[in-house]
Amino acid sequence: MTPTAAVIGAGVAGPVAAMALQRAGIDATVHEAHPAVADDVGVFLTLQVNGVSALRAIDAADAVTGLGFATPAMRFRSGTGKLLGAVSTGAPLADGTVGVTLRRADLYRALRDEALRRGIRIEHGRRLVDARPVAGGVRAEFADGSAVTADVLVGADGIRSRVRQAIDPAAAPARYVPVLNVGGYAPPQETGARPGEYEMVFGKRAFFGFAVAPDGAVWWFANPPRRDEPAPGELAAMTDAQWRAWLHDLFAVDNTRACAIIASTPGEISGWATYDLPSVRRWHRDGMVVIGDAAHATSPASGQGASMAIEDAVELGRCLRDHPDPATAFAAYERLRRARVERVVAHGARSSNAKAAGPVARVLRDAVLPLFLRRQAKQATKWLHDHQIPWEDRVVAP
Ligand SMILES: Cc1cc2nc3c(=O)[nH]c(=O)nc-3n(C[C@H](O)[C@H](O)[C@H](O)COP(=O)(O)OP(=O)(O)OC[C@H]3O[C@@H](n4cnc5c(N)ncnc54)[C@H](O)[C@@H]3O)c2cc1C
Predict the structure, then answer these.
(1) pLDDT bucket at 1, cuts 50 / 70 / 90
(2) pTM of the entire predicted model
(3) From the CB of residue 14, how many other CB atoms can be counted at a distance below 10 Å?
(4) Which of 68, 75, 15, 62 has the alpha carbon at shortest distance from 46?
(5) Cα(294) to centroid(ligand 1), Å
């Protein structure tokens, strides 16, 4: 009989996992809590070359071709406007493909549509509430009262993963990272930025970044520092006017375009808190496994959340293809992935903390950063961006 998988979550990791599992000869169904595809919450993100390369391993990269725009480089400045350095976002792939910046909702939609095109079932409105091993596999129970049993259960259900909890009820909760996120799309205007280059500004009071899209629109984000974790509902209760006033106050002291870009942004501005998961101690148990943010959420500062989720999903497919016994496959998957993703999460946390630096740390940071960026520009981050998944190669059992 064809082995089956229930994949929980149709964000980034879920549809890719289902496609990789299908390639591995496993019949996967995706169960998503939301009744429809996510809206533009979270604004935009970057899909790095290693993420595109991982999609290519299962011939799914065409699904994202033409979405967003190429962003192969970043220039860093201090709040005075002084150039601190520039780095690439990874060496181009053999055909010249570089990292892209795209709307989060567009990425979700593209991956979901590609999975559907390949005949994968995606069921919306199915919120997992419990999962447990039963004879013949794992039983997943949903809030609408329905349930399914599959040979394996893949938790691609994001940072607040229910599957992670089912695997380890004592799993540590997500860690608060002391910067907030806010962003938007401003109309075309003079910014002085080069096409395809992020301008990243370590302002005196907060971090600001933007890139200019091919149509001239300015895609921006800001990271107001916030030491203590916001109370539930606190950020959602802030009005557009409050966000704008606060951001103006944070960036008025800098010699940058931040205030003008934010002021010209139409629509409601709102922000959200940042969390990560530095080390989830159990990734799998009894036919259940977590991938993507559910296993290792990283602060957006790493720029790798989506790419790591895609890499995980493809590697999991490879492991289950070569080792039908779930325990062996999951152990192989963890061995392939854990060190790499935890290094990314640590890098993201360091970058976020640098953005939240106080006055003394800021002076140090601005002094050291040019040296660090020069070193990074030389070595690039080869371990991160040049990563390739050898889909055809057999995974060695751990
Ligand atoms: C609101 C938000 C905004 C973000 N913004 C940015 C950004 O601007 N830039 C950036 O770089 N990264 C951002 N990220 C992070 C980035 O999107 C993730 O790293 C990436 O999407 C990881 O993919 P994933 O599939 O593991 O998790 P997700 O993309 O979070 O997908 C998880 C999916 O599981 C579903 N789900 C959750 N619980 C259940 C359940 N119990 N039952 C069924 N389904 C469930 C969710 O609805 C969701 O569709 C954001 C994440 C979130 C949640």
Answers:
(1) confident
(2) 0.95
(3) 32
(4) 68
(5) 9
